[in-house]
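Journal club prep — side note

Before the paper discussion, L.F. wants everyone to see what a predicted structure for a comparable chain looks like in token form. Sequence:
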Amino acid sequence: MSDITKIIQTLKRQLKIAGLTYRNLGERLGLSESAVKQMFASGNFSLRRLDEICAVINMDITELVEVTSESEARIEELGETLEQELVDDPKLLLIAYCAVNHWTTTDILQHYMIEEAEIVRLLVKLDRMKLIELQPGNKIRLLITNSFKWINDGPIETFFRTQVRDEFLQGDFQTGAAIQLIRNGDITKKGQRKIIERLEGIGELFDDICREDRKRPLSERKGTTMMLALRNWEFTAFTKLERT
């Protein structure tokens, strides 16, 4: 895959995150929708035009290249055996969480009661698992893509469902930067697909904000969890009353 193709794919993803269509982009650039489609299809971008598109999505060309390069030669999934290894070792799971969220070794040492030698030992494990690359000075380089995910119904998701989900949902959503939305209604498959597409965009926005905010000091960042769910479901008390 050529470099320009990779950059175009990144641009498309960033447009989706920003909620912009080719028509919206064309309006911002003073171009027709067909002209924008042709530009993306041919990969014929001048530096000036590329800079204009980046301005629309609130990026600069340097950031665009950085985001593109981050997705290369990295893993998208860890594998069941390695996920289970994380679940079986709470300290290793904690260090993995910190690494994925761009904590430094110093950050971990200052925030948790774990000796530096043990932190390094655990980081070496993560290095062998290909989740990170442990560099000189115990610097951490992530080896996962922006689209990295845990295995569906794998050890991490099972751990979340059995030990984390209820604790999370029973918390306080009334104060601070928190929200809990619960909706119920009859929706067609087409309507469901529309909502799923929008939720996927929100998930990508979350990842994008994490990427941007990792440049901020750790003291300004707080552990944040977002859970989005949608499926065909009816309350059991209702289904018991249904006619067979």
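L.F.'s comment for the group: The chain has three domains: 3-70, 74-170, 173-244. Keep this in mind when we get to the figures.
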